[in-house]
Amino acid sequence: MAKEECITQWNKTGDTSTLRNRKICLTSEKTLQAPSTSLSKDKHSHTAGHLSEDDTQSSNGAQFSTRGNLSKDPPSRVLLMLLVGLSFSTRLYKITEPPHVCWDETHFGKMGSYYINRTFFFDVHPPLGKMLIGLAGYMTGYDGSFPFIKPGDKYDHHNYWGMRGFCSVLGSCLPIFAYLIVLELSQSQTAALITATLLIFDTGSITISQYILLDPILLFFIMAAVLSMVKFNKQRYRPFAASWWLWLVLTGVNLAGALGVKFVGLFVILLVGLNTIWDLWRILGDLSLSLVEIAKHFLARVVGLILFPLFLYVTIFAIHFVVLNKSGPGDGFFSSAFQSRLIGNNLHNASMPEYLAFGSTITIKNLRIAGGYLHSHWHLYPEGVGSKQQQVTAYLHKDYNNLWLVHRPDENESQSGTPDLVRHGDIIRLEHVETTRNLHSHLHEAPLTKKHFQVTGYGINGTGDKNDLWQVEVCGGRKGDLVKVLRSKVRFLHRATGCVLYSSGKTLPKWGWEQVEVTCSPYLKETPSSQWNIEDHINPSLPNISLSVLKPHFLEILLESHIVMIRGNSGLKPKDNEMNSKPWHWPVNYQGLRFSGVNDTEYRVYLLGNPVVWWIHLASLGLYPIMAAVAAIALKRGFSLSQKRIEHSHVLMREGGLLLLAWLLHYAPFYTMGRILYYHHYFPAMLFSSMLTGITFDILLKSTDLLIRRPYCDWLQRLGQMVLLFSILYSFYLFHPLSYGMKGPLAHEPGSAMAGLKWMDSWEF
Amino acid sequence: MLQLPLVVTAQVDLVLLVITQLSMWSRLSQLSYPNAVVFDEVYYGQFVSLYMKRVFFIDDSGPPLGHMILALGAYFGGFDGNFVWNRIGAEYPSSVSVCFLRLCPAVCGSLSVPLVYLLTLELRFSHLSALGAALLLLLENSLIVQSRFMLLESVLVFFVLLAFFSYLRFHNNTHSWFRFCWLFLSGASCAAAVGVKYMGVFSYLLLLGVASLHTWDLIGDRTISHLRVCVQCVCRAVCLLVVPILLYVFWFYIHLTLLNRSGPHDQLMSSSFQASLEGGLSRITKGQPLEVAYGSQVTLRSSSSQPIPCWLHSHKANYPIRYESGRGSSHQQQVTCYPFKDVNNWWIIKEPDRQQLVVSSPPRPVRHGDVIQLVHGMTSRFLNSHDVAAPMSPHAQEVSGYIDFNVSMPAQNLWRVEVSNREAESESWKTILSDVRLVHVNTSAVLKMSGASLPGWGFRQMEVVAEKLFKAHSPGWTVEEHRYGTSQEQKEREAELHSPTHIDVDRKISFWAKFLELQWKMLTVKQEDSEHKYSSAPMEWITMETNIVYWLHPSTNAQIHLIGNPVSWGVASLSLLAYQLLAAVYLLRRRRGFKDLPDAAWSRFLSLGCVCVGGFLVNFVPFLLMEKTLFLYHFLPALCYLLLLGPPLLEHTHTHLLSGTPRRVLSVCVLFVLLSVFLAFRTFCPLTYGTPELSANQLQALRWRGSWDILYRRR
Question: How far, in Å, are A15, A122, B390, B409, B410 from residue B404 at the CA level?
Fold first, then answer.
């Protein structure tokens, strides 16, 4: 079969897929027949005694069906085992140190504990990563009792090694995946080895794998997705075979995993998507395929890469909601209906007076998703923002400042038996319980939404003016309708100006404690932003009735939690005084992150890439475009090139291009992000950059024969590889304390273990 | 050798001529009405005034070319800059020639119409399509409004269109060497477009993309010799890369040459920049001694405190014994950073083991690495730091003014001078030029501003702390005012400090340094972005949900609005959709081997898409990602591309997709659409030209969309 194919394709020239197949048929012929066929002969004599060339050949031979060949090949299997050993040993070494909470372990460890305790929480990332952490902890005997309050807390007797170990096992897979990807892409063992070495001995990748973080899990899924995508690409000549399906489905699974850990997984989805579109475009252009077959290809990808991952992703959330059924710290971010699901929440099997009445104490929640409670506090609007009265905001957390008293407009209090119920169209006055100010609005611009009016707290002890009067309207109700607690959507119309109480969703600056703006909107369109519901309702003189609130549908919960997460993510704005990491810092390794310890007495771990390795990456990012451009122009101008060089050019342009695209997709979007950025956001991009480095340097070294004559160029090539290897190893020896912990004086003092290694002033160790 | 008879043949495209006439008439007639400040004229006007007075300013909204073009018109009109631009609707006095102020944008706006005509021809579509595109542009109310006032969008549109037109001219003329003039013109207009507004960058990038595709084809052409290919590539790179960059810098050169007086924005710039401006800092610092010596009296300006300047300051008030949080302090004298000039900003540089506070003769300059003490001029306290947490930033050390009153804490008042720009300047500490880091000798902490401000007890001044050195390039301090101290006695010295500084020398920094600093400042100065009453979101532009009131007559209902022509906007959006649909169908079918179009028509179709759809995308999509306040007029460049797209697309449909009766129907439809474009234009004319005045009912009737703000008075 393979033979026929290569004979038919031998005749065509120019098409690169042919070139690959030509190689294949060369090698298969070589293995099947005597090595003296005329075709392979000149090739063989050309490359005789040439080890690196042999590498390319043998791995080329492994292109499709012969993939097994390679693993049967003893040296490569030994090599792989060696890499596995090295990778695992570097990552698992000193895994339990330091025995205290490091950096973001305080969040993710805590969230892992929440799963074990089944407590509901809110986080800006999707749940898969934390679920896995929780699971790993559970399996290794961690009972979820450690509070993870702040970095530096001692773990003492708690079993934390399991969670760390799980993360570092996933992290250890990264160099191996990178090795396999590069091998598959470039068919060059040298390139794959360079990549693996760069990653194994990079202090940054070691450090980030060793702690309870989402990153190793995310990186694992990203790399696994890319690996299966690359494998799937190589299956293109045997569509719908079992292995074809396997890799397709695996790609889908890993995509779902990546997205399920962090939204950064979207970038790898984009990469796979682009690759798939490109693939489909190629299939569409293949006129030998009928439209039905093309449709089959298309549908298979839709199922494998869209529907199936989506199903998995939704399943993850389903598990998340089923597992977390107890009330916890994240309740206030969600709607009243959502909260009623949670055991221990005051809305769970709630019992309160059913209809809103005058004299009740209530909390009012905005109906837009992740809208907060109407809130006020002892702080005034600053100078220049409307009138200098008390702030009224929307606040996402439960707080006693969210309580309001419902009054009649005229008298202050009338305690006469059962209080009157509030009806649609009634005029009320809302008094803030804590500060006794009335909810007030007037014709001043709102602080952020300039088209709306400002809402303030005004008056003292309930006395105010006519700007404090609001008309209650039940949405869809008629005059005289009662206001149901929890279930009615209510609007508050300002009597004097006719505007409606509105939550804009914009975050106030520092003076407003970064709470959400509340305004009075003159536009009366009915949107969730202008609708509110009464959540808590306390009135001792009314009988409590048990309310079974409508349980929300699963899809509603899913949508709601996503909107809450996205809001939370974009709400992570850099603070004014904080030193914010800029995307351009990352590739130059400008500044790392302190994982643990600041002073010279503490055990310090500093997340920073091995500078030699990272600067090699940087160099290759500069070299690659030049080499690719030269190759592209040479091919385009039709220079006569040797077979080997054409092969190299294609690897550079096609596979290198794929990696460069992947790097760009994982790096460039950060420039447009307004949220706070950290150094570790670069790690997905770094992985792609190191694979690109492998390919670039491999081809660069193999092109030494452009410079000097035959035997010397091989020596030069060998020398280059050795220099690369030793500089990586030596720099790892120098910088390994960054990952495995340093004690004693800081680097700018001569007594330090890191003395003289602070090559950039911006490094903080 | 002269050949007789001498014949001159001239071809005049009458249609083009008529179109130009019409567009001139629509944009230039009655330019001086209304005789009042209209909308953003209030913003650009202040810069025009500053140009007339040659006062330096920074505007972060865009590079200076646009402002300079406006100022050029004002210059011709004899405007002297004496007008207070403080509110929209303020009447111009008779001394201001309003017509000239608005002339340049109006001319650019009216030239855009014939340019569109020519551009369509260069895209190789027929004269009829060209006429259609030109008419759409001519009858677009929003473009007319935008070009009739002192605003920049029409200038930007003009340069962008010119760049594309001249590039296509270059591309279509394959054989004469004269075509490189067109290429040069294209590069120059790109530079101009970028120089007017940063948005021009995206059009420039698109043009570069198109050009590199063409160049790539050229490289692939194996019939041309290598040498020729090289020469061609170099020419293109020079015209499209080098020329624009040089010209862009040139705009700044003119800008900086024109503006040589100090003004309101001086303080945003570094001391050395300010010193190069006439007046302002250079007046104060003229003739100061250059080298800081022991005994010098100096004010130290923080380099990090942008945009507000501040100077190292101390005053007779101590840190409170306990802060609100319950933490304790040293209860020594406060040291702060104070954003105003004050006599308490003066410090004296003292050599640690000598007592005297005057400059010896000859002066002994302070160099990099020297250890000094700083004495506060008015209170004689030493600048001191110690291991006490700072008031607002507890991770850093407190800085205080110390005097030995036998308190329990020892003095730690030695500071090492580190000149951080010593490579560029020199080892010795120079006034204004040197950026100096003051390192505390005992703790190797660095003196810096924390960015927090102190509460009431510190008079809300900025906090100064000493922080352990971790960050490179942590900005330091610059000596701004400087003189050699002469008075031994404290009383005399106080009198000396109160007297202003003087003397005379000139200090220059190079143009490049000024350019880089100015450009960097323009890109990084952030003004508080807040929502504006008429701001809008990008998606509202396409659906025409928004308008802007530009001007309202103080007593009548006459008013000017930025409202588009609803029919042409509809046509524009439809043509965008239609193009995408057609392109998708064609592409898929071609991939399956069906060639619906002859190659020439296909390449024409593609280049239309590249220029028009590409142009629309690059001018629209960035706004979706931007987090600044946006207005409807930001959409106008993108709209121009869309208007340009419609007629050629119709021509394409007419020639390639239809035949027989549908063809005739299409022609009738086109006529009908043109008629309705004209009618819609007529209908909105009163809001475009602000005349005639309409009654409240008529205005009501013009409110085609509920979200439009149209104002009227009830009488």
Answer: 86, 55, 21, 9, 8
